[in-house]
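Purpose: get a first structural picture of the assembly so the mutagenesis plan has something to point at.
Setup: four entries, given in the order below. No constraints added.
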Amino acid sequence: MEKLGMILPLLVPIIGALFIVNKRLISDKNLTKVVAVTVIINFICVVYSLFFNDLTAVHILKVNAFLDIYFKVDQLTRVFSLLASSLWVLTAFYAFAYMDHEKRHRQFYTFFTLTLAVIMGVAYSGNLFTLYGYYELLTLCTLPLVIHPGTAEALQSGKKYIIYSFGGATLVVLGMMMLYAVTGDMSFMAHGIVDLSLIEGNRDLLKWSYLAMFLGFGVKAALVPFHSWLPNAMVAPTPVSALLHAVAVVKSGVFSLIRMTYFIFGTQTVMALDVTKYLMPFVVVTIVMGSLLALHQDHLKRRLAYSTISQLGYILLGILMLTPNGLLGAMLHLINHAVIKITLFFVVGAITHMTHFKYIHQIRGIGKQMPVTMICFTVAAISLVGIPPTNGFVSKWFLGLGALNIGNFLYIIILLLSAFFTAGYLLPISVTSFFVSSKSEPHERDAYQSNHETLHEVSDDSVREITHEMAKDTIHETAHETENKTLRNEMVAAEFSEDGEAESTDAKPIKLEPPKGMLYPIVLLTVVIVGLGIFPNPIINFLGGVIQDAF
Amino acid sequence: MLQCLTLVTHNTASPNLVKLIPLVSIMLLMLSAFIMPLLKKKRHLFGLTGGALAILMVLSFVNVAYIYQNGGYYFDIGHFPAPFGISLRIGEIESLIALLFAIVDLMVTWYAYYSLEKEIKESRIAFFHTMNLLLLASLLGIVFTNDVFNGFVFLEVSTLAACGIIVVKDKKTNIKAGLKYLILSSLGSGLVLMGIAFIYSLSGHLSMDYIHEAMIANLDGKQNTILISVILFTVGLGIKGAMFPLHIWLPDAHASAPSPSSAILSALVIKAPVIFLIKVFYKVYGTQIIHETVILDLVLLFGVMGMIFGSLFARSQKELKRMIAYSSVAQMGYIFFAIGIGNTLGVVMAIYHIVAHALTKSSLFLAAGSFIEQTGFKHIEDFRGIGKEMPVTLGIFTVSGLSMIGIPVLPGFISKWNLAMASIQSDKLYLLIFLLISSLLNASYYFPIIINGYFGEENLDGKVFLSKSKPIKQLLPLIILTVLMVLVGFFSGSLIEFIERGVYTV
Amino acid sequence: MQTLINNYMFVGAVIMFGIGFMILLLHNNLIKKIIGMNIMDTSIFLLFVSLGYIDGKEAPIIVGGVLHHNGYVNPIPTGLMLTGIVVAVSMTAFMLALTIKLYELYGTIELDEIQNIRGG
Amino acid sequence: MNLMLIILLVPFLGAFIGYYLGYKNEKFRNVFNILLTAVELLLIIMLYQTVKEGPIEYVMPNIMGTGLHLKVDIMRYAMLFISGLAWFLATMYSTQYLIKKKNRNRYYFFFMLTYATTLGIFMSENLLNMFTFFEGMSLTSYALVIHDEDRYSHDAGKSYLGMAIAGGMVMLFGILMEFDYTGTLDIGDMGAILPTLGPVKYVIALLIMFGFMIKASVFPLHTWLPKAYPAAPTPSSAILSGILLKTGLFGIIIILVEMMGSDPYLSMLIYALGLINIYLGGILAMLQRNIKRIIAYSSMSQTGFMLMGIGLVGILGESGGVALVGTILYMINHAFFKILLFFGAGIIYMILGELSINKISGFGRNKQKLKVFFLIGVLGVAGMPGLSGFISKTLVHEAIIEAYHHTHFMFFKVSEWLFLIGGGLTVAYMLKLFIAVFVEKNDAFHGQFAEQVHKRALLPMGVLAALIVLLGVMPNTIIAPLSLYAHEIGMEMPSHLSLFNATTIGYAVISFVVGGVLYAAVIRRKLYVMDEAEGRRIFVNPSLSWISIESDIFVPVMQIAYILFSFIFKIIDNGLLWIAQKSSEFFGGIAKIDAEAALNGTYRQIVTHTEHAIEDVRHKRQHQTEAILETVSEKREQAQIYTSISPEIEAIAKLKLKFGQIQRTASGITSAIFMFAFVVVFSMIFIYYFGHQ
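Result (structure tokens, whole complex):
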């Protein structure tokens, strides 16, 4: 019974998916209800199995030391599975609203719940073999979600996604092979299983093993130069993109890296192998490149995708620092980035859902139509930049401390530089939506009202400049004077009296707030973002367990 | 379960009777084969074949169970002891392969019951079955025999029979492919025969154990002759086993033959010569001599080339069956690779991969055959959206494809994993790279079919759900094969242990 | 040179094998190819039989009383070659049968012409 | 609940309530906001009762992991007070100023949030809290800067936000290092540890200071200032210049005095930067024509004076009481002047929608109240005895002299004179502004618009003017508590301060004389020239063509770096894909030889080659049946006819045919046999070559 209780989170979504896929059992009308029930039950099961179940390890099938399907619960499992299952609930509700206008619901929800099962599997895996198995399954389960639109472009992206993923998985296998040849064991243990005494004579093998596995898992974690599947995977429906970026795919890559570094090799061994110096350049390039290229993107989701690449670089950096503070920062950022990025994607999805806009230059003044949504976006953006008192700052703080603990100032500079770029690519979105008036483009307004997406070519150079270029100071005093003059003259011409105040000059804009199913998750997540920023201590204490296991 | 059955066999069948099984199997098949032309009705034909194969399967299973309990044994045909008479040696590997052959052939025959007459003329069905059973008999002979010349004869028989099941479909391409296969095979057999001549001149024996003893005894000064003979064997058997540059007959033959024939060819026909080659290497020459020569490196080289180029060629194919045929070339590359590594684990994995690949490839060919049969198309492009029309069949195709690609727990992954372990054990780390590249290449041609088959709005446009799917009873053989394949992956640990017990190397 | 003369059997077999192989390789006519193949096979049979031959001893056929067992040449290769010939004959027969089939379908047995026929 | 916390929370919550009210009714909101700031000001005044007894602290654990640590002493209180007053007046002024503006609700929302965060900065005792509030202030004030939403304000806003965030990042770097070295974030605790560290303390201090320096517009980080101030709506400009600038200076004081224990080297640096600021700001202010821009550069110049004061506090160490008091006083006064001046400029702008002094010259000639208030501000900034500016300037000046006495370092003597001449600059540009707007005659504005200068806009100005005069006459009311504070933190004050004597007034006179000369000689002569087009004298601004730090250094460097890195990263971005594509094409090409025909250049060679071979074979065969010559000539004829019809199509068709043949040959039986032979030979050679292992 305890055994069942423990692996329940792995089974519930599968059972749910079996129901969902069955047309005769579940009618189209009840589809979403079943999905909701499944994810909620799953969440409850997760909580039960993590905190109210004494059993923490179970072998499902043990053929030999290698072929051993083994599940285990430790603090890291708790962190990841709680994160995933809770975000899944929110995403589910968001998806119910979002998927209204999409086709093939049944397929979508089937794989949606199946992916949850796989993610739970990743979290609960007790050894590298199980983890790897779930890792491969993850690719297969998310693929249908990525290519859900079914267009040629989507299929192309899907192919790219799967080839990259399998390339990565192949590298992982390579690493596992070499590891297993040395250790003959692949289960996760606190402080690692690769004993320092094993290094003698196997140094090269272990080194290559670590590198191969890091790069292999790095593919899912969008490590440059294996990142380009991620921006391409943007063709997926937004809830999927959000999940891909927040927990499902990239975070499982990161999670696997933490498992591999701290629970297989162990800090001491990795230090003794001295491999991080080969990997750090990749990570640094990832951070800077992601954020720099994000500046170039006009497509909202692509911009967020490049942002994810950069942010994942932070986490990898934290992992590779091999200090408690660094790991803490990485873990915090794993959680925080998940929350932040899912919010950002939800907002972008809401914009697209309501207006069919996909590009930054189209969303001028949209903040007035969907204020709550865009405020949430702004808060999340600020958090991602790392400005207190939001949770993004907390993780950045610990990452910075971790870098200082190993005495490397370059990393801090990289972190801060990237944060600056982050501001450069996220804040203009908020600014464009709130502070750039949309009045100059009347036809754009018509467009979203008629819900036609014909406006790709509509672009105003001035706003593009603002969002794209860094500053180019072409406007001098005189220019300002002349420009303002016309505006002010109008004002002077208008009657200047006390009564003018009562007149409402803010024409009430058309409200385009998304439906509640989408809005509530966004707001809730925003509250979490700020909440975690103001009261980070509980979560830091919770992560303390992981740090203890690792060091 | 195996143990349970062993107990049963132990109690019911006397050991001596069990030892008759190999001979009985061959005889049974041959007899049935020759009765076949006498029968007219399709039901009777299939009844006889199916019955024979079912009996064979049960016998093989009993045999495996017996060997699991008691180990391998020799069986002298006609009770002439070894140096003079022909003897059969049945160990763990042989019994396992026999069981595998029986199961696969039974499943293919089952499948053929529903589909064969759509591909070949009705009058040819009897011929097909004759050849099929004859082929199986000869293949079992190759596997069981402990006598090199006997092996040669069986090889020739198998060549003829295999050619028979290729040309059973009266098309131009089939005749051409059959002729090509026949000529190349004859060349190969010529080499094998020459090799036999050489080792006979060296040792004066034809029974494997005795040749081995004799060769160990007077090794000096004969290295060159040994080398030449070993090359003759390798190349000769390499042709039949589709070793990479000699694979040229394979795609034509496999692609043009009727699907059941393709499945048999891919799953069985190219496997038996490899078993024979392993036997020649390790039973005739022995580990010591083989390791002194560089022949294993040559095999390794051909194996690696096969893995890479087979996949590359497969990638650029437009016909589905040709693609799967080239994939067979690549998979045979794995097997030669495994042999070429040269340590025990390598040989074990070669055998394991033979088992795994036989199950996987037969189900792949049968699935592809179903597509072609139901839609009438041959080209990969035409199978877009097939997943909507035939979801179960494509599902089977997918699982088999995933095994080829190397998804954990499926047998493809297990072989790759252990091959890597074997490479590491023999200090050839660079081989891992080839393994991985090849598995990536595998992914690159299986995935597009699966993805295009299941997903993509444009692809699925105009397709009707389940419109072309076969009834479940017709799909059952495929499903059984797939399930068996998954089980082979799941219980790879015990299977490998079992093979390891019977492996010839030291 | 001396080795070549001493092993004239081997040399002869190899030369014959070569002739057969060249015929097989260079001729487009299928019948000729099959003939080449037969020559090759024959070379191997000859080699094999020569291996068993011991100078000055009789063929292992009992004609009027059994000699000492050293009086005969090794019978096994000869016996094997009988089998081999049978196999080769059946092989040839099969090939010829296929050639006839091919001729029916294509109207020629020249391989290059067959190849040039589209859809072949 | 603690009073400090209430002070912090009232504007924060008020912002939201105000926003909600604004949705319902704008009038309610305006009244609410004025009341809110008034209450807030009262609360701050109430706080004085406890503060004067000694510093008060409040800790709220767990907020942001480190806890919220608030502290108020006299200096911080002074800052709180001017903030409270400034916001109260600015809110009142805004209600009038913003009538015709859009998005008023949003404006007030951010206005109040900025208020809350600014108060937070002044009260934070924890460095991390301070950083939080500082960043919050930057972001919220950004919304104020770009309120007009035109291109100019967006440009300014971009500059402002970019520098603020960059400053924040650098500051964060410093805070991280500081935490790594000292293990504490409390400013008080740091003061005990940080000065004992080695040279790294300078790195830390400079990094943290960097962010504050940006806000305080210290050279060369001032580039945002002349853009942002004019871009913002006037009340915001007033707040930016009056209070937000002070947060930067406040931060520098905190770092230098409380954290670094008045480190002399750092002090010298700040002192020197102060001098640069005075001159750079002063000269640029002289050249400007836009009122707001003049005031903005004036702020920069005045910052220089304050920086000098701060530097002196550090240099003088324990005897830096005068400098400290002078600096704080200077900050308070400067806030009053600048708010007053901006309000004045705002009224002009409100009426005319114009800020260039060329256009508005003579506007204020007949608007007496406005003129008087503005004059008080102008003279206050210039340091006219009797107004409060004089007091603070004198105190700082005293401190310079004292520094010279302490160190006998000639630099202080020189800088004393530079200080006075800098004062002259102030006088000069203020004169330019005042004379142009309020003294020149311009018939266009005679008697007009007087009624539009509304009381609600003038009242705040009046209050400020009164305060300036009051403080100028009775300086001791504020000097006394400040001296007490200086004493508290261990700085000696001279027992008596003689503020109004011949010497001090003499110094003021020197400044004024210098200013007058500068005005007459430079501004009237060189800058006020005849314009042919307009037919009258107008001011010119030669600095427009001068080198600009931002547009000529920062931006190009950043742009080049940006383009360069973008280029590199784009290569990386697509590099792997490119390699993969190329290699797959390559292997695909290899594989195609076996598989399918592809007609491109590489294969053409093979094709022609084999064509020859096939031709040869044909020749041979024909040789047996016919005479060679005939056939060749026939074939030639045929070929000629063929090629004349459509040579290209024919060629392609031929190639295709040939290639198909090659393909079929490659997969034919003969080639298979050939392959077999090849493998046998290869294996033999392989074995022979490598022999036994």
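The CA atoms of residues 396 and 456 of chain B lie 20 Å apart.
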